[in-house]
Amino acid sequence: MMKVAVIQMSSGPDKENNINKALYFTRKALENKARFVCLPEYFYFRGPLKTKASVEQVVEPVNGPTVSAFAALGRKAKAHILLGSIYEKTRTKGRAYNTSVLLGPDGKVKATYRKNNLFHIRLGPGEIREADIFNPGIHTAMAIVEDFTLGMSLCFDVRFPGIYDHYARRGANLFTVPASFAYTTGKAHWELLVRARAVETFSYVLAPAQAGINSDGTQSWGQSLIVDPWGRILAQASNDKEEILYAGLDHRAPARFRRMFPGYKKLN
Prior knowledge:
Helix content: 25-40%
Order of helices and strands: EHEHHEEEEEEEEHEHEEEEEEH
Strand content: 25-35%
Structural class: alpha/beta
CATH superfamily: Carbon-nitrogen hydrolase
Number of helices: 6
């Protein structure tokens, strides 16, 4: 049994404050014996970025100071940590990758995943386009986390089941979906989508999310989730508070559920 912790945050435009808060929550989860701690998307910055100069103020390389600070925590506890997403520096000034970073128990970067499917939505008169800031990733990312095989994804990816099918066919039985889901779409679809990704592949899903009001006045849905391979919710958070969720994951469960359906050719 692997104890996991999913951290729900309400990050704002103060990067230093967000990092300190995330370090505090991560430290607390590790002190509670979590073996895998997951932070949400945009955990160190959630705010408007309207110019190239403003983007440059928050981007970092994967081997930058923020990742290093969390690596030290993971190394001390000998645990895995998922940094939901950082604004990864690119060669183009004023651009970034939305990158999820997995740290191993030795403190080293074990895997990185650059968000493939960038969010784009029109809600009333407003429009949100991640492509205004981020370059899309083109690769998937898998890694071993204790007795599990992990497939990494980010937020809007949860609407694209193909990526999870791809992972499951290659042996993944645990998915991470760090998110900052919009309130309107989250209320309608978030739980449905997360549970669907678990059920269709008989895999665990860890979905740490942002909650509360953003600095631009919009609201994130929250409801961070831990879902088992049968689609059952093992733990869920509120829509507006910062919280830590815990659950124990049985590495034998995905295979047990998959054996129940011998005619389900996708995974057998």
